[in-house]
Amino acid sequence: MTKIVECIPNFSEGRCKNTIDKLINTAQSVPGVSLLDVNADPSHNRTVLTLLGTPEGIKTVALSLTKCARDNIDLSHQVGEHPRMGAVDVIPFVPIKNISMAECIALAIDTGRTIAHELDIPVYLYEEAASTQRRRNLAAIRKGQYEGMAKKMQSPLWKPDYGHPVPHPTAGVVAVGARQPLLAFNANLSTSDITIANKIAKKIRASSGGLKYCKAIGIMLKERNLAQVSMNLVDYQKTSIYTAVELIKAEAKRFGAHIVGTELVGLAPAKALIDCAEYYLQLENFDYQRHVLDNHI
Amino acid sequence: MTKIVECIPNFSEGRCKNTIDKLINTAQSVPGVSLLDVNADPSHNRTVLTLLGTPEGIKTVALSLTKCARDNIDLSHQVGEHPRMGAVDVIPFVPIKNISMAECIALAIDTGRTIAHELDIPVYLYEEAASTQRRRNLAAIRKGQYEGMAKKMQSPLWKPDYGHPVPHPTAGVVAVGARQPLLAFNANLSTSDITIANKIAKKIRASSGGLKYCKAIGIMLKERNLAQVSMNLVDYQKTSIYTAVELIKAEAKRFGAHIVGTELVGLAPAKALIDCAEYYLQLENFDYQRHVLDNHI
């Protein structure tokens, strides 16, 4: 019964092929770890890797990747559409098979402590691994971004969980945590007006009265000249992908806009997608466990 | 490496609970065979069982079910919306895991021969197991239905593959075959006018110029007072569920009708449903193997 954990580190570099290749090579260098997906976005200026492996392998690869990011990404010169506070911005651990959330929390704590001590980057623990309620939400930790961190960390409220309360000069700070699987999902709009994406994001996200398990921001995709609603669906059983999509369509209508395409960042569980098929096909009496052949073989 | 075959026998009884229960009990009586789904439809007057098991187990259960159908269903009194020629109308074998189509053809031949010899029901082999091109298509074999079989079988063209060229007096004839997985999928319309379902079925099915891998007929669902387009999608990689659904919607519009709900009869592979999610969500750069988490664990 091999324990399998997913790790989806986000790096604040989505343009420089040389750096992205170094990250990919590092990600592929650890036995027992598979690199399942690479999503590099130049507008976001961010690369998201999806890794699956044993807890030991995942810890090793997370440390190697953090070192690689620290040595190759200089946040003091980085600009991009996606908010960021570190060269490696966030490292979540997700229980996939034969492993509990408690074990993923322990893995986050262990990895976070090692990053601070060996790589000199201050670490905040977040979500399930958070040391206080205030630090559960990644957006709250990241508020102020890289440029605001030096000042923010002076406050006792924002003393890091590990390391000194001073951002690494080039690599900033990193959030390390454990969480349930989430869906990172973006919808591209038929407009280059970023204010429309911002207004739609505000309408659909939980923090301003939208869908309870939806986080959303507007982002400008410069290379396609399109505005994008960039989302995290943190409980796709309760806030389905199609619900977010249909709400975006409804909000976009008032601006004469529509969705021109969507994208998954990383992987999605089959059920999250089949829930959408069930909705759009208007399936009656459908039972995921029973009616999907793959669940029986 | 256990060989797994799927068998989806169709019985011409969808109303009498007593008979359906006997079929279910028989289906559950063989070790190594799982009954995954029971779809009994009173308007169709048909019950479709979905079974998964080893080739040996599946042969045993197919014979037991055929005997049970022969002894409990009298086609000389049966009426229903779905075309039929036998108490057990059709018995397909589908390769699922560690088994080839050739092995499923051999299983169909072996089972068909035994049904004719031990249960006295004439057998046609169909689809991949067919003895001639003319017998590949189930609809061609069934044309004339139960009532027309006695005459049809006199023709040398329609001499059965096994058994005497005379239908069993109550159980008729049965088609036994091997085939790729298909999707049995029905769409219910917002009308009780069966002629609309018939016209739509004609437009979407291959035989009259519609979708190449779609078979379709109109059926009246008396218990809901709705007309239904009842389909087999025989290659869902090439003719997707959503393609059939969108074409039905387009055709229904001219009659001021729409789809009120759909139904899977039996099971569907995850990919067939996720293809629909990909379409309706407008996913860009989606790769089923890579982006579905379940394919990696």
Structure, explained:
The structure is a homodimer of 297-residue chains. Chain A has 297 residues and is of the alpha+beta class. Chain A contains 9 helices and 11 strands. The first copy, chain A, has helices at 17-27, 55-72, 101-119, 138-142, 145-152, 194-204, 241-253, 270-280, 288-291; strands at 4-7, 10-11, 33-41, 46-53, 88-97, 123-127, 174-178, 183-189, 214-221, 226-233, 259-265. In chain A, strands 1, 2, 3, 4, 5, 6 and 7 form a 7-stranded mixed sheet that branches. In chain A, strands 9-10-8-11 form a 4-stranded antiparallel sheet, with helices on one face. In chain A, helix 1 packs antiparallel against helix 2 (55-72), helix 2 packs parallel to helix 3 (101-119) and helix 6 crosses helix 7 (241-253). Chain A binds chain B through residues 4, 6, 34, 36-37, 52, 96-97, 181, 188, 241-242, 245, 259-264, 266-270, 273-274, 276-278, 280-286, 290-294, 296-297, and chain B through 4, 6, 34, 36-37, 52, 96-97, 181, 188, 241-242, 245, 259-264, 266-270, 273-274, 276-278, 280-286, 290-297.
